[in-house]
Amino acid sequence: MSTTAAFRRLIADPRLTVVPVVPTPLAARIAEGLGFESLGLGGYAMGAHLALSEPLLSLEDVAACVRAITRVSRLPLLVDADAGWGEPLHAMHTVRTLEHAGAAGVHIEDQIFPKRAHYHKGIEHIVPVDEMVAKLGAALAGRSDPDFVLVARTDAMATDSYDEGIRRARLYHEAGADVVMCFPNNADEAERAPRDLEGVPLIYVNSDGNRLGRGIFPTETLEAWGWSLVLDAITTTNVTAHAVHEVLRRLKETGRTDLDQGEMRLTRKFVEDTIGLDDYYGLEAETVETEQLP
Q: What is the spatial distance between Cα 183 and Cα 164, in angstroms, rounded to a whole number?
């Protein structure tokens, strides 16, 4: 089964699908090994791992990340396509580029382009509905695989009102978006949205450490409320940054990492197993490393 068809099957499944954002190929392989059924590639996480703000990412930056991950993982990958990198023509090109790179789907948002770094503070600027609908139509025309999934993201609940977010979500679905990603402001809105958008598959975004007060909800709660997917947006980035900072701080201050070497040997073996190092050894042993040691 193609990754696009597999992703569509997950969307149609009445169970909630958890989609962890994995901004590196190693994280993707770890998630796949743990049994996740799909992966996400988020703009915030990609930008952070490149030490950039998301609005500074180019389409080629994102396509390179997609290619790196889909080269090592067979799972469907949902990719943050920002605002489609421009007008409808650019949105069409974005879909073609990321589909060719290996994405199973993309989400395109109704924010202005170029996006501003202030969105990290929750200061967002959305475009008129008709502009977003035109962009979605062009994005749909850009896909060559009819199973390729188009997600429309609206930030209107934060910038305008819950009701405006619901209105836009419905219009975007009617315009052809397969799924809608929206951002309720509180638990009451998060519980209501699936009822108010009955028949529209919805993605909730859990964003650990967000400074905007948006709720982080367990998967069983979101499933009971009727959400189709939950995107875990920033966990891998946060824990990576925290762990690297702590160990390097100790090294700088004390000259030692203070890591348990037994644990580190196990961790190193885990990394090597995850990247398939034994397979590489095997190929070399059959070809270039044939000379027996004394």
A: 12
What are 179's strand-pairing partners? 151
78 contacts 41 by C-beta, under 8 angstroms: yes
59-to-3, 86, 88, 272 alpha-carbon distances in Å:
21, 11, 15, 31
Whether the CB-CB separation of 134 and 88 falls below 8 Å is answered with yes
Q: How far is it, in rounded angstroms, from Cα 113 to Cα 33?
A: 37
In the chain, the DSSP E strands lie at 17-20, 39-41, 77-80, 105-109, 149-154, 179-182, 202-206, 229-232
State the average pLDDT over residues 122-135.
95
* 197, 8 Cβ separation under 8 angstroms: no
DSSP state letter for 110 = S
Nearest C-alpha neighbor of 92 from the set 77, 81, 79: 81
Distance CA 277, CA 86 (A): 42
Phi-psi group of 239: left, alpha or beta (phi > 0 → left; psi -120 to 50 → alpha; rest → beta): alpha
Six-digit token string for 205: 């975004």
Domains in the chain: ranges and CATH: 3-240 (3.20.20.60), 260-294 (no CATH)
Q: Are 157 and 165 in contact (CB under 8 A)?
A: yes
pTM (whole model) above 0.70: yes
- Asked whether the beta carbons of 180 and 194 are under 8 A apart, the reply is no
Residue-wise pLDDT tens digits, 60-117: 999 999 999 999 999 999 999 999 999 999 999 999 999 999 999 999 999 999 999 9
